[in-house]
Each structure stands twice: as structure tokens, then as C-alpha cells.
Design a protein that fits this description.
Number of helices: 4
Largest sheet: 4 strands, antiparallel
Radius of gyration: 21 Å
Structural class: alpha+beta
């Protein structure tokens, strides 16, 4: 039995048969059979307030892949924006640098098509800029606006810093 707090602050008690623990993108997850939902579910460990060991035992299905379960669960979360971007790189490079939970990668005539979802487009713009590859926003139009706004902020910061020759003082 676990005491769990969901992303929206909702607290619940869950009877969980843990099939695996997975470290993914800086967080630990437990995945397994949730008796209340009668389904395999995934829970962030940092949202588990307490654990109470139950009686009895259970068998983990032989073909269960905890990592695949966690990654697909993260990717299936509903987000506010559907995003499609062409990355000017190879599928191999994109696959090495981007975790599977970021979205679906596929070959595109101009590079790699990234299909994903985002809650906040400003964060998506920063992530794309941080990859270091040229890219083209296919959708949504609002992401183009966020990329342009980020570009303006970066340019303004560079211009403000131009002409200053002061060396930062060490404490």
C-alpha cells in the first residue's frame, strides 16, 4: 500500500504490486499492478509519502519491461500542445541525444521529424535551442512565436553585453 500524491495534488492510497523501479530523466519511478485501477500504472517515487508492506505475494509477468512501461507512460501523458518539428540532424544522432520519452522520432526528407507534446511552449523553445541543431517548426504556430521571443531575448542580452570589457570579480 502506498500513499501517493498525483501531479494535481490529489492524494490517494494505492495497493500496488511493484514490478520494477526505473530511473529516467533524473527521476525514479515505480511501475506495477495497481489493484484499485486494475491496470499497470507508473508512480513517481518522490510523490510517494509512505509505503506499507502488504501480506501475500505476487508474480511479475515474465515479459514485463519496466523501462518500456515507464517511458510509454510518460509519453502518453496529455499535454496542452501537439508539436511537430523537423530537426536538421540524423536519426541516429537524435536518438542518442533525446530520451524516448521526449516523443516520436522518424526519418524526414530534411532530417528528423520530432512529434511530441508540450505543456509550455516557452520550455519547448528553450529545449529546441539547446539541442544545437537547426530546426523547422511545423506546428503549432504559437511555438514559432515562442522561438522568436527567445531569439529576441538572447539577441538583446548579447547586445547589452557587447562593449563591456569588465572582468567579473571573484568573491
Amino acid at each position: 500500500m502506498i500513499a501517493y500524491t498525483a501531479w494535481d495534488g490529489q492524494e490517494s492510497q494505492r495497493e500496488l504490486d511493484v514490478y520494477g523501479l526505473v530511473f529516467h530523466s533524473g527521476r525514479w519511478y515505480a511501475t506495477g499492478h495497481d489493484h484499485g485501477r486494475d491496470d499497470v500504472r507508473t508512480f513517481r517515487l518522490d510523490r510517494i509519502a509512505s509505503v506499507r508492506h502488504g501480506d501475500g505475494s505476487y508474480v511479475v509477468p515474465a515479459d514485463f519491461d519496466a523501462t518500456a512501461q515507464v517511458v510509454s507512460g510518460i509519453a502518453a501523458v496529455g499535454w496542452s500542445h501537439e508539436v511537430a518539428v523537423v530537426l536538421r540532424t540524423t536519426l541516429a544522432e537524435a536518438g542518442e541525444r533525446l530520451p524516448r520519452s521526449v516523443g516520436r522520432l522518424s526519418e524526414h526528407v530534411d532530417g528528423v521529424l520530432l512529434e511530441t507534446r508540450a505543456e509550455h511552449l516557452d520550455g519547448m523553445a528553450r529545449m529546441l535551442a539547446g539541442l544545437g541543431w537547426d530546426f523547422e517548426v511545423i506546428t503549432p504556430d504559437a511555438l514559432r512565436d515562442e522561438v522568436l521571443a527567445l531569439s529576441d531575448r538572447l539577441r538583446a542580452g548579447a547586445v547589452r553585453g557587447a562593449g563591456t570589457t569588465a572582468t567579473p570579480q571573484r568573491p
